[in-house]
Design a protein that fits this description.
2 copies of one chain form a homodimer. Chain A has 10 helices and 12 strands. The first copy, chain A, is of the alpha+beta class and about 300 residues long. Chain A folds into 2 domains: about 160 residues, 2-Layer Sandwich (Ribosomal Protein S5, domain 2), CATH 3.30.230; about 130 residues, Alpha-Beta Plaits. The relative contact order of chain A is 0.18. The interface between A and B is large, with 38 and 38 residues.
């Protein structure tokens, strides 16, 4: 096998109470990439469609993660990467993670899978760091492993696969506005009230338990974020209206996807997820902000060969 | 049935990363109580052995929780309570919780179980509040439900039963010193660094996952407390030495039981738990502080009829 085409999925990081540790993977939204072995040594990005991104590997997220893996192997050939980008950079649903994951997943397949998924995450972190200026894995992990993941720690890298209940669907709205990651970060307090932290970890512990037991009521009761949402939601126009409409339409919970501006809602069943989509559409249609929407099952497989 | 004898177990609250929400139940340490229906209406404490505690129901933890339940029922008889106290008050292994739970559990049995365990917890909270000056359920819940419990919230009262891996054993040392609950509380900061809070909830999420999957390595990697232990451990003489010795002897993790002074260590298997006991004994034998030690399986049943 000298060439493969892969699907690298969008992901939702943070997931309300799981700030900085939890994430899940989408099914219907993602990039496509072609990875090809070439006689010419090194990493070469040969095509980029969808968005205007740099071709220099060391300036491109997919290129940086590919280079990180390439440095760890000893081969007399190189790789070409074609990127068909569907996930808009800066949308808050793991655009850079999809790029970072896609190249290393594809290369690993062509090499005969010398690396496990945690090792692939470690390479991909280097690419993610180019985009977000810090090393984190909360989008990379669900993109690689699929389903829900908990990044227990970065050093050493420990990723846990949390079960994903069958009927869980997600509705995403991506308002076409820009939130600078630096601003989303700067708005967070350095210290938080101990009582709020306790409420947050009670909810995260409960959510992990609820995912293990497929307890949708408990998922609903756990999807609260008392730490980050009060700050970051102020950066997203009409956030509270969207959340109110989504919950009224039957969503189990609604929160900020990554650092925004996308907003995710989890629902039990496709029908509910579609009702939530309609309810949110109504809210945003009354504004003059352009937006995209997606409804997706949770993708338990993660990045895959097409 | 007019009279029953019950065993009301000791419990460990907080469990390192689960501060204020997590707890588990002991098997080999606990109080015994006799609950008896009487023609005389009201709650009457007729015998207390082991420790010097008040007989007036409204001044006695078991009495206060019994009164809370008694007010919620309409019967033309009363209850007598005999308390055979084995758990020393103030030891940090749920002495007041055992008393508070025992009376309402026993009364509920004699009444034909009109109340579920969450409702019993709500009555017992009133008794616990007498002892600890605040309403909390992190010892009550494991005493009533057995195994590991997560108190997701107090209002409304939501208690989750987390699976307990079969081979999990606990070693407890109770140094015979007094730590005032007020002091243990005052020493905690009102605010904590966001990064520490994230580390704590990553560990708690991981611990819940590890308990569900019986992953002892992950239990070991999750039993860390970056928030409370650095403060409260300073109140317990030789805490760091005990912890170091326990971990060296094979404990999966060591932490403060409740607000101390007791220290718990979790181990895989009875043999390991006994080795941990020996190692800790060596440390404390070199001091002039009296101490008790217990080794126990996790008690998945909780309070029970003898």
């Amino acid at each position: 096998m000298n060439e493969i085409k892969i699907f690298s999925p969008a992901t939702v990081a943070n997931v309300s109470c799981g700030f900085d540790v939890l994430g899940f993977c989408l099914d219907s939204v993602g990039d496509e990439m072609v990875i090809r072995k070439t006689d010419k040594k090194g990493i070469h990005i040969t095509k980029i469609e969808g968005f205007d991104l740099p071709y220099e590997p060391e300036l491109n997220v997919a290129g940086v993660s590919a280079l990180a893996m390439y440095e760890a192997i000893d081969v007399d050939f190189g790789f070409e990467i074609e990127i068909y980008k569907n996930i808009k950079p800066g949308s808050g649903i793991g655009s850079s993670a999809a790029s970072a994951v896609g190249s290393v997943f594809g290369m690993n397949e062509l090499l005969g899978k010398p690396f496990n998924k945690t090792q692939l995450t470690a390479f991909a972190i280097k690419g993610e760091a180019l985009a977000s200026k810090c090393e984190h894995a909360d989008n990379l992990a669900p993109a690689l492993f699929g389903g829900f993941t908990l990044v227990k720690s970065l050093t050493p890298l420990e990723i846990l696969e949390i079960p994903s209940p069958n009927e869980l669907y997600v509705t995403i709205i991506h308002p076409q506005i820009e939130i600078k990651t630096s601003e989303a970060r700067a708005i967070l307090p350095k210290e938080v009230p101990l009582q709020d932290a306790i409420a947050q970890w009670a909810n995260l512990g409960s959510l992990v338990h609820a995912l293990h037991t497929s307890d949708y009521n408990l998922i609903q009761n756990s999807l609260h974020d008392v730490i980050v949402e009060p700050y970051r939601s102020t950066l997203i126009p009409h956030y509270n209206e969207v959340k109110k409409a989504a919950l009224k339409a039957g969503a189990l919970g609604t929160g900020i996807s990554g650092s925004g501006p996308s907003i995710f809602s989890l629902s039990k069943g496709l029908e509910a997820a579609n009702s939530v989509k309609e309810a949110i559409e109504k809210v945003y249609s009354r504004t003059n902000i352009l937006f995209d929407m997606h409804v997706s099952k949770i993708n338990v497989e993660g990045v895959k060969i097409l």
